Amino acid sequence: MPNLQEKKIAIIIAFRDFRDEEYFTPREILEKAGTEIKTVSNKIGTAIGADGGEVEIDFLVSELNSADFDAVIFIGGSGCLKNLDNEDSYKIAREAVSQDKVLGAICIAPTILAKAGVLSGKKATVWTSPMDKSAVKILKDNGAVFEDNPVVADGKIITGSGPESAEEFAMKIIGLEGEMN
C-alpha cells in the first residue's frame, strides 16, 4: 500500500442519514494509508449515519476550499440528496476537477457530480435498483457514460455504486493518490 503521509482528503457527508459503511470503511482504509481526513457536512456538530454511526464534523461544505486537499469524496445515503444536492457541493466538485484533484462519489452521490457538470463525457457508476433507475437517468441526462460496475474510475474521478463497493472504492482512491507521489 502506498504511503500517503502529507495527503489530505475531505470527506463530505450529510449531517443526517449518510451511509455508515460508505463513510467509515473508506475512512479507515485511507487513514491506514497515512492520509489526514477532514469530515465536512451541511451542519456543524455530531453527524449521525443511517445506521447510527456518529462522527464530529470539522467544517461546513460552504467553508471547504478544495485547494487545501488532495482529494474530495462525497458519501451517499438517504440524507445525501436532501442535504448536499446544492450549489455549494456543485462548486466544490467543479473546483476539484479544475484543480486536478481526485474527486470521488459513492452510492447516490455521483448524481451530485453529474449535476455539477463534471461527469460530462466521463465513465461513471451510481446506485441503482430494478425499481429505481432515476440516478442512472440523471447521470446520462448530464452527459455521463454510465457503467454498471461496482467502481468506475475515469481519470481522477472515481465513482462507486454503493456500500458493497466501499472497500474497492477506497482502494481505487489510494491507487490514484499513490500514483501522484
Topology:
Elements: E1 8-12, H1 20-32, E2 36-41, E3 46-48, E4 54-56, E5 59-60, E6 71-74, H2 80-84, H3 87-98, E7 102-106, H4 110-116, E8 123-124, H5 134-141, E9 145-146, E10 151-154, E11 157-160, H6 166-179
Parallel strand pairs: 1-2, 1-6, 2-5, 6-7, 7-11, 8-9
Antiparallel strand pairs: 3-4, 10-11
Helix pairs in contact: 1-6, 3-4, 4-5
Describe the structure.
The chain is of the alpha/beta class and 181 residues long. It has a single domain, classed as 3-Layer(aba) Sandwich (Rossmann fold), CATH 3.40.50. The chain is 33% helix and 22% strand. The chain has 6 helices and 11 strands. It has helices at 20-32, 80-84, 87-98, 110-116, 134-141, 166-179; strands at 8-12, 36-41, 46-48, 54-56, 59-60, 71-74, 102-106, 123-124, 145-146, 151-154, 157-160. The strands form 3 sheets. It has a 7-stranded mixed β-sheet with strand order 5-2-1-6-7-11-10, with helices on both faces. Strands 3-4 form a two-stranded antiparallel sheet. α5 links the parallel β8 (123-124) and β9 (145-146). α1 (20-32) packs parallel to α6 (166-179) and α3 crosses α4. The longest helix is centred in the C-terminal third of the chain and has 14 residues, at 166-179. It is globular and about 35 Å long. 52% of the residues are buried.
